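FORM 7B: Structural annotation worksheet

SECTION A. Query
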Amino acid sequence: MLQTRFTKLVGVQHPIVQGGMQWVGRAELVAAVANAGALGFITALTQPTPEDLTKEIARCRDLTDKPFGVNLTILPAIKPPPYAEYRAAIIESGIKVVETAGNKPQEHVDEFKKHGVKVVHKCTSVRHALSAERMGVDAISIDGFECAGHPGEDDTPGLILIPAAADKIKIPMIASGGFADGRGLVAALALGAEGINMGTRFMATKESPIHQLIKEKIVANDERETELIFRTMRNTSRVAKNAVSTKVVAMEKEGAKFEDIRELVAGARGKMVYATGNSDEGIWSAGQVQGLIQDIPSCAELVSRIVREAEAIIRSRLEGMIVQPQREAAE
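SECTION B. Predicted structure
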C-alpha cells in the first residue's frame, strides 16, 4: 500500500483521485472510485440546481460508505450559477473534502474552512498554487499542459510543472494531466507529488456514466487526438479532436470571436455526445493521455492495477537499478 501526506489528509487508501468532470462526475462513478479506495468528486455544476446536488450526494451515500468529495468550479460566465447556494448544499450535506478550480476561491475557501471542510484547489501554474496556499487551502492539484479541460496559458507540461511546484509548495500536492497507470503514479511521486488526479482515464471505466461508444473512442484515440480551442481568447481548453473542434480551431485562425462559435461550443451539445455516443455531436473534454488508455476496466480493477504496477516498479525495477560500487582492488 502506498501512503502519502495526501492519503492521510483526506482519509483514503490509495493516492489516486478522480477529479471533477462536467457531465461525468456523477454518483455511480464517484461511489465506484470511493469503493476502490481512491477519492472521487461529484461535479456540482453537472447538477441543474443546488437541490439536485443535495440529492446526488445522498444517492452517492447510498452506494458507498467511503469518503468522497464534491468539485466546485468557479469560471467566468455571462449568467453565473448560484455558487453560494451550491456551496451551502455541499456544507449542509456533510461533505468533508472539496475540489475547487477556476477563479480566486477565497470566499469559498473561508466558508468551507469555517465548517471543517478540506479544500483541494486545482491550478495550472506555480504562482497560482502559491496564491492558493496563502489563501489557506489544504492541498493543491497541479495541472500540466497535457490535461483535458483548461491547461492555463503558460503551456508548461507536467514534467516541469510538478517539480517546480513541489520545490515551493509546503502543503500536499497531487499531480494532474497525463496520468493513466502505475508508471505515471511512480513518476508523479518521484517528481514531488503526493498522488495523481485522473479524469480521462476514469471516463473509460465500466461505471463511467457516458455512452459506451465514447469510451471506445477514447480507447481507439491516440495521444494526438486533441485540439486546443479558445486559444485566441486566452481561455484555452483541451478537447477531443472531432469535426466540431477542428472547425472551431480553423475559425479562430481566421479571427472568429466567441459570438461566432458560441453555437458550436454550447455545453448542451457536449452533453449530447455522452448521451448519444456520437463523438461529432459537440465539444467534449479529453486529454493527450488517450494514447495510454487501452481498455475499459471497472474502477476497482483500474485502481488496484495502478497501485500494483506502481509497487512493482518501485520494488523491482527501480530498486534493482541501485548497484553498490565494487571497491577498487588495493594496488
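SECTION C. Observations
The CA atoms of residues 172 and 232 lie 34 Å apart. The two ends are 48 Å apart (CA to CA).

SECTION D. Sign-off
Analyst initials: ____
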